[in-house]
Amino acid sequence: MPAYKLTCFGQSGNAFKPALYFALSGTEWEPAWINFFKGEHKDAAYTSKNDQAQVPILEHGDVTIAQSAVILDYLVGQIGQFGWSSEEERREIWKWVMWDNYSFTSMFAPYRFFANFVPEEKRDPGAMAFMDMRMKNALKTLESHMQGREWVALDRPTIADISIAGYCYYGDEVPFDFADYPAISAWKDRLAALPGFVPPYELMPTSA
User: Can you give the residue ranges of the GST C-terminal domain (predicted)?
Assistant: First the structure.
């Protein structure tokens, strides 16, 4: 039995982040599907492990960890890939992981969710417009940063790339055209060409 168990579901880009880490690092892991759309993440059995009632959680022996960024940090410590070799590198990586959590995924994830999984009549046009604006501002930042670069934080792929990639490989569910952002598109292609890469709907379960 694999040492790592990740509670996840295929539609979750935040769960895709640690799942992708496992795939790229060649680490065996066990996916545990949760029926998010039926509210299983709010059940007592789940909240006893994660009182924030969010997906994913990682279980590794007696350790249970929530939040994808914290999970990625833990996996770097355990597995030793896609991390840093100095404090300066660690700070640069975490600058971009935190940027992703605050400026990119924080807009990308809810916009995609409402655009694809919520009936149009239940969407708030003002909220959608705000998320669209913030998301496009973040894309401009990333597009500018990636000019002349291969990877986000360092001269090699790190958890900064894995974190930012979380919601970038959902095909038609992505609420914008990556062709408008050629530097980001080239980065996405490089990441997808790494040995072990698997897209989210192939890597994580969508049902029991």
Answer: 86-208
How many Cβ atoms are within 10 Å of 191's Cβ, its own excluded?
21
Contact by Cβ (8 Å): 45, 68: no
Copy the structure tokens of residue 74.
């833990």
Tokens linked to 90: 């660690």
C-beta contacts of 63-72 below 8 A and 24+ residues apart:
68/14, 68/15, 68/17, 68/18, 68/163, 68/166, 69/17, 69/97, 69/98, 69/101, 69/163, 71/6, 71/17, 71/18, 72/17, 72/18, 72/21, 72/97, 72/159, 72/162, 72/163
Full residue range of the structural domain in which residue 146 is found: 87-192
What are the tens digits of pLDDT across the range 85-114?
999 999 999 999 999 999 999 999 999 999
- pTM, entire model: 0.95
Return the closest-CA partner of residue 135 out of 121, 115, 156.
Answer: 115
* Peptide bond before residue 31 is cis, with ω within 30 degrees of 0: no
Residues 6+ apart with CB under 8 A from 76: 82, 83, 84, 159
Q: Are residues 149 and 102 in the same domain?
A: yes
Helix (H, G, I), strand (E, B) or coil at 29: strand
| Number of domains observed in the structure of the chain | 2
50 and 15 in a single domain? The answer is yes
Interstrand relation of 57-60 and 63-66 (parallel, antiparallel or unpaired):
antiparallel
Q: Name the DSSP letter for residue 118.
A: S
